[in-house]
Amino acid sequence: MAKINPIQFLRQVKQEVKKVSWPTKKDVTHTATIVIILVAIAATFFFFIDQIIGWLMKLILGLGV
Could you tell me which of 2, 3, 24, 6 has the C-alpha nearest to residue 14? Predict the structure, then answer.
């Protein structure tokens, strides 16, 4: 395995970081908003499914209303 000078390694890292295409603040905000909305929708959906399944299990086992 070839040994590399730490200074040379850091220069290469700096060069590679300059090539990265960073997202804009608008892109990050838009994506984060979409993720938060989808997580809220999924949480609501699974909450209601859990409630329905729990109600059905109580009904089937005779523990329910």
Answer: 6
Contacts of 58 (CB under 8 A, 6+ apart): 64, 65
What phi, psi does 57 have (nearest 5°)?
-65, -40
Helix (H, G, I), strand (E, B) or coil at 13: helix
Give this prediction's pTM.
Answer: 0.65
- Residue 57 to residue 9: CA distance in whole angstroms: 61
CA dist., res. 26 & res. 53, Å (int):
41
Q: What's the average pLDDT block by block, 10 residues per block, for the chain (65 residues)?
A: 83 93 96 98 98 91 70
The pair of structure tokens assigned to 21 is 């295409």
Length of the chain counted residue by residue = 65
